[in-house]
Structure formats: C-alpha cells, structure tokens
Amino acid sequence: MALIFLNGGGMRGGPLHHQLQGTPLLRVARSAPKYRYFSVGDRFPAMHASGTGSVVGELYDLPLTVLRDHLLPAEPPELEIGVVELADGSAALATVLRDACLGSAELTDITAVGDWRAYLGSRRRPPVS
Question: Is 76 within 8 Å of 58 (Cβ atoms)?
C-alpha cells in the first residue's frame, strides 16, 4: 500500500478514477505551498516542485499492484511518479511533470487556481458580455 495524492483525472468523477479499482478515498487534501501547477494542453494537470502554490487533490491508500498495473499505465508520458509534500507536512506519491517537459508550449500555468476541477469549470463557462 502507498499513499498517493491525485489532483487530476484520477480523482472522483475523473476519466481515470476507475483505474483505482475501487480504492476508497481517505480524504480531500492540499499540497504544501511549494508547487507550480499546469494545465497540459487542457488535457490533464501537472504539478512541478518549482513554485509557491498549493494544489487541491485527493489522498488514497493505493495497493502497489493497482498503481503498477492500472493507474501508472494510464498516465500520460509527460508525467512521472514522484513524492510531494502535503499541507500537513506528510509525504505522498503523486504524478508530477517531468523536468524535461517544463518548457513545453502546451503548458498553461494554473497555479493561481490550484484546483483542476475549478480550472476546468472556468474554461466551460460562457463568456460574460
């Protein structure tokens, strides 16, 4: 078993949530304020340990076999497994942006939002006239 902090498609209601194979949510959590948070082409989010922002996510105690066989194979190649700090000082696994992808033109900095669902919701709203 391993604690994993999910902040994108693996969260409840997301397109990768089924990859958790029924693993129950432990709690909603927030990262420590030391990350940059990106939208990668509006397809998925990515954290990177090079900032001062906090990210909203969900914490799961995931069996390593589920991580290996289901969740990680479904993740995009721009992400890799890393260890992040949560707001309470504890550590958890998370998928993070690979350093080599940091300069990609597909990245939109959404650190100020810090929440993938809120960001997506803001993108779907019609413009105010």
Answer: no
Dig out the tokens for 42 from the structure. 């509006």
DSSP characters for the chain? -EEEEE-STTSTTSTTGGGGTTPPEEEEEEB-S-EEEEEETTTEEEEEEEEEE--EEEEEEE-HHHIIIIIHHHS-TTEEEEEEEBTTS-EEEEEEE-GGGTT-TTEEE-TTT--HHHHHHHHHSPPP-
Place of tokens 């990210």: 55
Q: What is the pLDDT of residues 25-34, one digit of tens each?
A: 999 999 999 9
How many angstroms separate the most distant Cα atoms in the chain? 50
Residues across the chain? 129
Predicted TM-score of the model (pTM): 0.91
